[in-house]
Amino acid sequence: MLVNINRLEAALKEVNEIGASKGQGITRLAYSSEHWAANEYFIGKCKEEGMTVRIDACGNVIARREGSEPQLPAVTCGSHLDTVQHGGGYDGTLGVIAGLEMIRSLNEKGVVTRNSIELISFACEESARFGVSTIGSKAMAGKLNKESLQKLRDNEGVSFPEALAAVGLDFTHIETARRSEKEIKAFFELHIEQGPLLENSGREVGIATGIAAPIRLEVTIQGKASHSGTTPMNMRQDALIGAAEIITELEKAALEEAEHGTVATAGVCDVHPGAMNVVPDWVSLKIDIRGTVITSRQIIIERLFKLFRGLQKRRGLQIEARILSDEKPVVLDKYTVRLLSSLCEAQGIAYLNMMSGAGHDAMNMASICPTGLIFIPSRDGVSHHKDEYSSIAQIAKGAALLEEVVLRCAEEVQIKPSGTFKNNMDRSKHHESRKTKSII
Ligand SMILES: [Zn+2]
User: Per UniProt, where does allantoate bind (predicted)?
Assistant: First the structure.
């Protein structure tokens, strides 16, 4: 392993001083001055390592370490430096800082790669400010909807274009952030799991085979309001009882689909009139069903609709369901999953092939290049919270794997003991810069 884990830890600590408030976690909302200060920190460190750095029109920071054959597509890696309100110090930040440490260690050891390596700090990964997540990687993958983006506003009423302007970016050029498939050979993201699976299974690393996407629906249940004291039990049309049946059926159906990793949640429930002495006449439920297997999500939906028909008959309730969004799950490149798994085996790392329940920049990058997503354990599965934590030993495993896979894809150029390259191309120029860097 090349990475210097103490240096990685120190850099994590340094960047996490930005936006930290005592006992309140870290707040670096997308495009805020704190987020931009973290990007400035990152840019400064990358420049110190001799990388060329550019910021695209969406605010993605792209730092490049030139390969010996710069015309080849770049091997990319990265994550994000923006956070939720009062977030933790690892979500996103780890992937960017581990990438920085990888570059530092490559320079220190004078490693030359054929393909250039690009390290990316993605813009606006978190939905905390504008309600939309992974905007930076969507822009890179050409998946942005400019019209709807233009209408977004944060809680203070600042529009998305205004937020971009505040950090010196021009919304009208945002589509120029799109990358061509020809420019990128592969993308790798190291991220904390943000869930309990790795910790519970005692594995050190997770390798995502796919990224789940939600299908979301709103269900409204119309019953009849009546006096809670004078209406006999068998004469009620209680909308909330109907909702309770729906929620328990949702759990049952999802449990039966557990083998596919599908999960379902009814996270919002509005009850009217919301009085202790009135039988509820109207309820709205918001339901989120996620998985990587579309047919498995569909089975749950079908079970719900069957129940709706039953509730109308049995309880006299009028039920309407509206699909709010239906996103496609992402299946990650099988070859990349296999490569990561075999690297774990070679390094003696206990790994788990798993699906990612949460969305990440990797899901957008997967549409333009082979993509790998590496997880390390999160203590108690906690994330988006100040108590988010992964130990330095856990980080070390993930960082070593990231470095290994990037090096494998970018193809380390072998140097003979005499200092000349095996390849027949004249790379004396690169050799020179390599020497200079290792002196620094
Ligand atoms: Zn993240």
Answer: 216, 277, 290
